[in-house]
Amino acid sequence: MRLALSALLLFTALPAAADTADGESLLAMDWEGIVAAAEGGEVNVFMWGGAQNINDYVTGWVGDRLSEEYGITLNLVPLTDTSDAVNIVLGEKEAGADDTGAVDLIWINGENFRTMRQGDLVWCGWTDALPNDTLVDWDNPSIANDFGVPVDGCEAPWSTAQFAFGHDEARTPEPPRSIPELIEWVHANPGRFTYPAPPDFNGSAFVRHVFYHAAGGPDALLGPFDQATFDAAAKEAWAILNDLEPDLWREGETYPTSITQLQQMFANSEVDLIFDYNPSQFGVLVENGTFPATVRSYGLDGGTIGNTNYLTIPYNSPNKAAALVAVNLMLSAEAQLEKARPDVWGAPPAIDLSQVPEDIRAEFDALPQHPSVVPAAELAESALPELQGEWVSAIDDGWRENVGR
């Protein structure tokens, strides 16, 4: 089992306090009963920890309110890869730890959620127990399905996101605005572009954009995995990426291992283009002085990939009541508004704003737009769908076998 160091340390150190009620009995209670069961407890939140502003929001705004209003202690376990949390739960299931898990809440989507569903590692049927579930538009297919896998009450949406590219207007005034233009640009500007090696989340998403281009668009790839369709697109995609390698940073001999490393390379002018599945990070990095004020993010003419990310509760969480209270708070209009503030996170909300109180909706409308962050509405005009998890795994594995080597 591969664990991030920080996760392993907390995994061995967390106290064993637990809610007094199991999942089935919790769902038989009204909300007041669930809150009573959660009071004075804790919730161990495992999530990607690569952005300090996101960590600060969870431990600060969310953690403070859980403590003040419910007496719940939030323990944040920052991960390098969400699969580390999935592997912890899988290892516990194999060891028979069905009531004493270390993980109460995971920030998740895509292949990791699919793995948990297939392995019976996730608790389901709880979302409609949350008062703030009324704010979620479950009729929206992009909310009700996680990379093509039905949610079925097994997770609650937390944020939406869409991939965007970035450039510094001062040194790259005319960046490439499509995958074909990017290919030409890389060859014309050797050494000035690279991407994190999959399975890094952002690097994997970049490779999928090239794969979509090779397939003639995502439509041919939607639905269940098809080996023949994959093989035809993969042959072209690997040819494109291998052809790019000699003109990448360090001639493609090595790749960054994370988006954080790529951000630092861009800040140091080692590369001239960057991207992120969380466009708000461009504004955050400008504000903290990592990027210059002349950085701008943008979408591609042919669109960029977007998705919804979620919060899920493992089947063996011993603190399910506290986890439910935490998710309900994180779904609230107030929490989603705070998360959307550009100086906090800038993440688009996962709730239906038509359902929130008018005064909070007015605050959403009045949020300032950071000049370095492409408006979410502009990106959404040409959003591309994510693929089912089996496609994503096959693309990542294929890249390692045929490109990364």
From TrEMBL:
Gene3D superfamilies attached to this UniProt entry: Periplasmic binding protein-like II (3.40.190.10)
Top-level division of the source organism's lineage: Bacteria
NCBIfam families in the record: PRK11622.1
Claim: Thylakoid is one of the keywords in the record: no
Annotated signal sequence range: 1-18
InterPro entries noted in UniProt: SBP, YnjB
SUPFAM superfamilies for the chain: Periplasmic binding protein-like II
Protein name from the UniProt record: ABC-type uncharacterized transport system, periplasmic component
